[in-house]
Amino acid sequence: MKTALITGITGQDGSYLAEHLLTLGYKVYGLVRRSSGNNLGRVSHLLDKVEIVYGDLQDMSSLITAIEKCKPDEIYNLAAQSFVGSSFTMPVLTSSVTGLGALNLFEAARLTKKDARIYQASSSEMFGKVRETPQTEMTPFHPRSPYGFAKVFAHFAAMNYRESYGMYICSGILFNHESPRRGEEFVTRKISMGVAKIKLGLSKEIQLGNLDAKRDWGFAGDYVKVMHLMLQQNEPEDFVIGMGQTHSIKEFLDAAFAEIGITDWAPYVKINPDFIRPAEVDILIADASNARKKLNWVPEFNFGDLVRMMVKSDIELLS
Predict the structure, then answer these.
(1) Which of 11, 10, 112 is nearest to 61 (CA)?
(2) Where are the beta strands (DSSP E) in 113-155?
(3) C or N terminus of the chain, fewer CB within 10 Å?
(4) Which residue among 147, 161, 168, 223 is the active-site one?
């Protein structure tokens, strides 16, 4: 039986990954901060199947203790301050958790379980002001937020530990991936929840920022499967993961409101200047051909499936 340690298990990706690894017969440990003890909602249905260990990416001694206890074959680093908007108001915290926290984990693994295979959650936000479209594994980075540059730091730290110490570390450069478990502060969930509230008469409007931003959106449940596939290869390698299609916020609104029979959503959407980022990433679109070829990864859900799933789930949740 293989053993996996997941940091950020209480998040969207962590909960889906835990479910997936359990179906594959893994013993799963989840790293949780003490202050997150009451934030186990996404994994509450798994608490009899996974073992929670306490630790914090900002405290290397706690990571060493956790790794020594779990003795993991695989480590998935999904923990981060992951909301881009908040990274502008908390740049130092974001850099400490998302950037230096990853370095702490790599160093803790080097000292205690050097042969563990490690997955590092990199991000399409590293591309930022894109130099080419679509983006591949070779596209230069130009991050446009503290979250983005913290992820770049972690990405290069992973590369350095792989090349300097011979450790098996892969980075998945994942493009936007959503689900009904997405935090309500993220724009896609803000839309699906807002549409559900309008449908049920609980609200009359949704407040959003830039409606013209374009993203490559997929389903988080599909994306966690490729995290596992990356760690099963003979040699560690970084992969871009995405759908290869781009949609604007307006298109997301079109699809979400169509689910409740509204074709003109303009009266229900208000632009709030507070939600406009200081520096915007205008368009992101993945070229995931390398992952599809080498990992045989084929996502099951498309953009329309994703929007329907999220709106339907939030209507059921609020009902």
Answers:
(1) 112
(2) 117-123
(3) N
(4) 147
* Residues in the chain, pLDDT under 50: 36-37
d(CA 111, CA 17): 26
* Length in residues, the chain: 319
The C-alpha atoms of residue 8 and residue 102 are separated, in whole angstroms, by 12
Please name the amino acid found at residue 100.
Answer: L
Annotated catalytic residue 125:
yes
Q: What is the pTM of this model?
A: 0.94
Q: Which residue from 77, 86, 20, 73 is spatially nearest to 50, judged by alpha carbons?
A: 20
62, 123, 145, 171: which is the annotated catalytic residue?
Answer: 123
Rounded distance between C-alpha atoms, residue 101 and residue 121, angstroms: 12
Domains and CATH numbers, the chain: 3-177+217-241 (3.40.50.720), 184-215+245-283+302-318 (3.90.25.10)
Q: Per residue in 246-257, pLDDT tens? A: 999 999 999 999
Given 74, 125, 178, 259, which residue is catalytic?
Answer: 125
3-class state of residue 214 by DSSP: strand
What confidence tens digit (pLDDT) does each residue in 266-278 have? 999 999 998 887 8
Specify whether 124 is catalytic. Answer: no
Token pair recorded at residue 172: 């998945």
Residue 292 DSSP SS3: helix
pLDDT at residue 84, as a whole number: 85
